[in-house]
Amino acid sequence: MTTPTTTTATTTVLEATGVTMRFGGLTAVRDVNLTVGEGEIVGLIGPNGAGKTTFFNCLTGLYVPTEGKVSYKGTVLPPQPHLVTQAGIARTFQNIRLFANMTVLENVLVGRHTRTKEGLWSALLRGPGFKKAEKASEERAMELLEFTGLAKKRDHLARNLPYGEQRKLEIARALASDPGLLLLDEPTAGMNPQETRATEELVFAIRDQGIAVLVIEHDMRFIFNLCDRVSVLVQGEKLIEGTSDVVQGDERVIAAYLGTPFEGAPEDSAIEEVQAAEAAEAADAAEGNDQ
Ligand SMILES: Nc1ncnc2c1ncn2[C@@H]1O[C@H](COP(=O)(O)OP(=O)(O)OP(=O)(O)O)[C@@H](O)[C@H]1O
Question: Best substitution site from 20, 22, 23, 56 to test ligand 1's pocket, by max atoms within 8 Å of Cβ?
């Protein structure tokens, strides 16, 4: 079984320093510092509205942070999405954003465009340079479809894929830009436990290919299994950061987010069983009182 890496990160891939994002009077992200090292999988967790997606948007140039800066491999990133992708950061979105009426292969090819050098005229004239580049792009796209287990579906329309495969396709498309860092925003949302487990394996495999990963997720089991380091945002501020063991044992995290300790916490079905038994007991008692 694959497990989180235990080696200490050597090179810093991503460095966010003092990132603050205000929307009018609301400070969605306040003075957040975060690094992701080469070979690392880092988790970003926090309650709804904590500022996680806003922070991702600041990293990827969708938002221009009110304050702070974001560097990738030592170079400060301009806050423009296409330049951020070109630099080496790719992302997926909380709500799937595929081209629904394009095929699986075409969706991945779209993700390749930042890495193809052929210009507009070459593309329009479909000259030899363009055809060669097109072939190389298709080969790379097929490699990624093999990697994500979607090769057999290459000609299916994206909208006809089951939900779990649509999420995989989003990841394949993000990988098509040959990133050094992949940002995943709730990659297992809406998945069943098997799909979640498969996603976990996929993320480990991505890390093993030398791509660092920063992942937002509400599924704590997934996060704590997967991540070398976890950072917790609460009301826009970083509450704590550390290994899974440290974070899941921190009382402030338990209070602010988890509600109950993660380790040994009862399953929902067990809670329902207890509630049903208590309700039956109460009904019996009420019946007894009536008699
Ligand atoms: N474009 C925007 N304009 C104004 N307020 C915004 C905007 N985007 C986010 N916010 C606000 O910023 C805060 C943080 O939202 P954000 O979506 O980043 O949280 P989150 O941690 O990703 O939540 P969730 O887990 O529910 O996705 C929220 O109060 C949200 O309403």
Answer: 23
